[in-house]
Amino acid sequence: MKQLTDQDRYEILASHRGRFDDRFFVGVTSTGVFCRIGCPARLPKRENCKYFDNATEALSAGFRACKRCHPASYAGEASALIKKLIALIESDPERRWSETDITALGIDPSTARRQFKKRFGLTFTQYARARRLGAAAQGLAKGESVINAQLNAGYESASGFRTAFAKTFGAAPAKVDNPPLFIDWISTPLGPMFAVGDDSHLYMLEFTTRKNMDRGFEKLRKVHKRAVIPGSTEVTEQIKNELEGYFDGTLTKFKTPLAPTGTEFQNHVWKALQDIPYGESCAYADLAVAIGNERAVRAVASSNANNGLALIIPCHRVISKDGSLGGYAGGLDKKQWLLNHEKSNKPQ
To answer: Is 315 a catalytic residue?
Structure first.
């Protein structure tokens, strides 16, 4: 395939007005915005264009996403196929979906298997099975009989249901008192994020690139004695909508109800973090003073890094005393982008 020159890219850009194409992205140096091919905004001048292979490269170069064309429909977004299949699963969580079912819908099972495995670490049928077991656990927690939960989950064999249930939840069906927590994947301009919640609260929100994510899930399981399985809830849908507003620059304060998982000291620090105004920042030492313990800078920094609710508990707003970025579990490129984004969208 011919390697595109900047001249080729500009000609493609000029000829595709109104027709989206994600072969590359263009950053406009005069505005600091980057767009998809086909953006309805005015065609930029040739000399003001910089080209990128993907949205992440453009973001890392300091460009912000266009509010008209939403470049790449958010980097790392789930494919249309994954969205369609998840919608089918959520419309009937207790249904026993099979590859034969999706073949009947005109979908290639191997394609579905590969895309689900890449995004979730589970095949389509494994995802659907985990969702059925989650629905069964919810029913049991509400007083449903084990036999009804078994049949609703699509298991003809009682022993097969008990084995699968115990493998997922770490206990036999009759011993599970708490419904599971559900983990959903959310696409954002900075890459995909995990959201973990139930019908009333959000327990975790993290970028998928964060290291040691398994420890966070295990902590939720141990502290709350609840399994974490694939699925969505009203709360995870709420945070999806709020994140879209946040990245559009139209939302400056989250309203999703939270359930932080931390010690008394950590919760104290996290409350102070939420008091830092949108578009502003403070030093770790200032945060220690704010909680009434100026010597606890290291403990504050540790709590800051482990809050488990990125963006909502805004640990990215804390920087080093000398003005440098300090640390950020999601990556310093994301931290810089978030600070710039909030500063440029701060209400006057």
So the answer is: yes
